[in-house]
Amino acid sequence: MLEYIIIFFTGILVGGINGMAGGASVISYPVLLATGMSPVSAAITNALGVTPANFFALIAVRDQMRAYFQEYKTLIYISIVGSTIGAFLLLSVPPGVFEKMVPFLLLFASLSFLIKAKPVRGARHSLVERIGIAASGLYCGYFGPGQGVMVIAVLARDIRRDPKTLNTAKNLIVGWTSLISNIIYIFSGKAHWGAVIALLIGASIGGTYGGRYAARMPAALYRGLILTVGFGASAWLFTKYY
Which of 72, 125, 190, 210 has the fewest CB atoms lying closer than 10 Å? Predict the structure, then answer.
């Protein structure tokens, strides 16, 4: 019972930060591992539990969703294709192989939070943008934590985009991408449903209400929290599997 309470409150934190910036599922993944789940089960449970945060974070701008979808639908479709491939890869790769990869994946997810986009002047360089979104989708389906940060980094390279709209665009792209890969996960038989529900409820609350409070948190504070947990968990996993 205690582990579900911890997962629930972790979900609130993750939902709030993910709704605002992304990357916080780096925090929930090691929490799930600490309960004794296998790396694959933890990855699937994490994905199923935190996805709602992106959609609930869109409630405040729901009247603009049609326009956002029209603008970003091509990137959404590309990301979904990448995520579908990634999800099938996750389920087909032997657990022992995934265990060896997890420390590197979590370290990469943590390092992605340090990405600083360099805006591109002139054309959108749509081919590079689409490749970047496809890669982030593939990563989302295979592992997940950090995809939101990657998406913002890709979108921010187009200086014609209003920076204030990037977080909403990220929530839309990541939300739809995760939703499709989650359908595949549901039928995998590897989800820990008690933890999924606890994390989902917490993330939904965090995504709806937590974002407005997290927005008042200094960026350096939540960035430091994510990096500390991410790097610490990576070190723990390297020790565990190597």
Answer: 125
Answer yes or no: is pLDDT of 90 > 60: yes
36 three-state secondary structure: coil
pLDDT band at 64 (very low <50, low <70, confident <90, very high): confident
Q: Cα(179)–Cα(211) distance, rounded to whole angstroms? A: 20
DSSP 159-220: TTS-HHHHHHHHHHHHHHHHHHHHHHHHTTT---HHHHHHHHHHHHHIIIIIHHHHTTS-HH
Strand, coil or helix: 158: strand
Residue 216: Cβ within 10 Å count = 7
Q: Which residues of 158-167 are buried (b: 16+ CB within 10 A; e: fewer)?
A: beeeeeeebb
